[in-house]
Amino acid sequence: MKTLTFLLLSLSILVLTSACSSDVSEPAYYENGMSQDPYAQGQQSNDPYANSQQVNNSYSNQQQMNYQNSSTPEGFVRMTDPKENAFSVLMPKGWQAQVSLERPGGQIRSCGVATSPDGATRIFLGDPNIPTFFSPNLGYADLIERQPMSKVRQQVSAAQFAQEYIQQVFGQQGRPQMGQPARDQELLFDTQQKAREAGVQVQIDLAVVPFTTSWQGKAIQGELVCSIMAQPEFWIASVSGFTTTDRDVAKISSILRVILKSQKSNPEWLQKEKMKQQQQQMQSQQMMAQSQAAHQQRMANNQAQFNAHQQRMQANQQAFDAHNQSWNQQQQINDQSHQNYMNYLRDENTITNGGYQSQVQSGYNYYWVDPNTNEYIGTQFNENPDPTRYQLWQKK
User: Fold this and answer.
1) CB 241 within 8 Å of CB 221
2) Residues 313 and 358 occupy one common structural domain
3) Do 96 and 200 fall into the same domain?
4) What does the alpha-carbon distance between residue 111 and residue 8 come to, in Å, rounded to a whole number?
5) What is the pTM of this model?
6) Which residues on adjacent β-strands are paired with residue 133?
7) 93 and 255 Cβ atoms separated by less than 8 Å
8) 158-170 pLDDT, tens per residue?
């Protein structure tokens, strides 16, 4: 059930501005940092968005989703994920923009990027290199770290994550100055509502951090929106934002919020995806059950082999004991035969009294002993030769 919850949480990323993949790879900041000038013009070989389409009034997509029934604000056009028809989002008209559904490391991510016609502003939805974080209290950190897009880290606030992110991304080219983190209640409510619509119960934290920095001598202003969805076992951080050299930062910020609020997942695709994830969960459970059954069978086979081995060892021991007993009995018979033979040669008898054996002269029926001197005497009849001295030792 925890695996299914995680998959559903991954699905809910669709409606929460999440990470994109290498196909829409900027800003691939979390591990790689900025590798190029996001404002350079005419550098087609270095710009991963050189092939992005120009959005205009005639924009159409053969996979335009039939679930779109809301009006489009003036100055925007709705774009649809061209890969799976999974979601749509508003983008500014006239901007170079691209949206796509990606599955980094088997997780589900919606992504997008838009660049203003003059190249002064770039809006991004997500970072493909932000992994899913797991609680260190789970106890199997080594196993988690071996999985793609998975890291072990104690949960932090959205504000702290945003500040760390800005420092890591923009600190490579300058010293970003960050403003006071703020909580946009309207964005937070919208994010919570979309999470509920996705059918996932999570704790959500959201922070907006403004910042300024420089890039190759250009003064840059920006804003980062970070949301964190968390459950006790794991948490997912999502970042969106913009960088601009335009002085009208408030206008860019409002455009970003229109984009964030406009993202819609395709209900039909979402239902199919949930069913597919449930089937995968069932298959995983079946495989686990089969693995456990196979393990139990192996253990039962090992126990049966052990029991059979013990039975063989016990049978061998019993046979050995029986052989020893037979040998001892034969030895006793041989010893007695030998003793009888020696007594015959010596004209003696072997008598036992009180656990002690003694050799006495043969030819008598009764033997008497003096307990003080151990001297014995034999008689033919049951007559004590000296009752004050002797006592009966043995009757032959």
Assistant:
1) no
2) no
3) yes
4) 18
5) 0.61
6) 151, 235
7) no
8) 999 999 999 998 8
